[in-house]
Every structure is written in structure tokens, then in C-alpha cells.
Amino acid sequence: MDYLLMCCFDESEWARLPESERATVMREYGEFQRNLVATGHYRGGARLESTSTATTVRERKGRPIITDGPFAETKEQLGGYHLVACKDLDEAIAIALRIPTLRVGGAVEVRPLGPTAETVGSAR
Questions:
Q1: Which domain holds residue 55?
Q2: What's the CATH code of the domain at 87?
Q3: Would you say 105 and 10 are in contact if contact means Cβ atoms under 8 Å apart?
Q4: Order of strands, edge to edge, in the sheet holding 107-112?
Q5: 54-110 tens-digit pLDDT
């Protein structure tokens, strides 16, 4: 089963970390990702730019509403994600616990992917 590990962090807290600490965390991320590839868990992933670059798209009464910024005001922002293949939730959590930003105040939401139109259609 595939799981999405959504890495969240307060952008202002990240900015307050010393540059050396941020560099260490990012180096650890590289090691983490190489390990995911080597063990066959890696399906995809990326670091997101800051929320100041976000655009949110909505629709109201049939009309598009496009606004700058993230969709909601929150303390923590989505900073990146990892799509991983795991045998079960326990394995996904074990991988999430290795994500480097946890030790500097980050959070990781672990969520299984649901069926897609392709997989639903192939089950018929």
C-alpha cells in the first residue's frame, strides 16, 4: 500500500534555526531519501517552496476564485512530502519517525492513498 508522508513545519521556526542546523537537516533528508530508494520504499517526493509562493484555487457559485497564499491559516505549513510503499501503517509510521525535521519541531501526517480511477476501473 502507498502512504503519503506530509512533512509540516512552522516556517518562522525554520527560519530561526541556525543555517548550520538547517544544512544538517537537509543533508539528513538526502540520506533519508537515498535509503528509501535503496530499500524499495520510494515512490516520489519533493520539497515545497514557502507558503509565500502558494496560490489557492476555489470555486463559488460556478466562478473561480484564485488567491495568493495557502488555503488556510495554520501554525504549521506543508513543507514537503514523501510517497512511500509500505506493507502496512506500522511500517509507514516507522519510516515517518526517521524524518529529520521531527527532532527540530516538525510534524509528519501519515495517510494511506485511496483508490484511483485507474485502480477502481481495473477491479471490474
A1: 2-115
A2: 3.30.70.1060
A3: yes
A4: 42-47, 77-85, 2-9, 107-112
A5: 888 889 999 998 888 766 666 778 889 999 999 999 999 999 999 999 998 999 999
Helix ranges (H only) for 51-98 are 89-96
Query: What is the β-pairing status of strands 107-112 and 2-9?
Result: antiparallel
For residue 31, being part of any structural domain is answered with yes
pLDDT at 124 over 80: no
Residue ranges of E strands in 12-70: 42-47, 55-60, 63-68
Task: Name the domain count of the chain.
Answer: 1
Write the CA distances from 56 to 66, 69, 79, 111, integer angstroms. Answer: 6, 6, 16, 22
CB 97 within 8 A of CB 29: no
**Within a domain: 87:** yes
Give the pTM.
0.83
Neighbouring-strand partners of residue 47: 80
Mean pLDDT computed over 4-16: 91
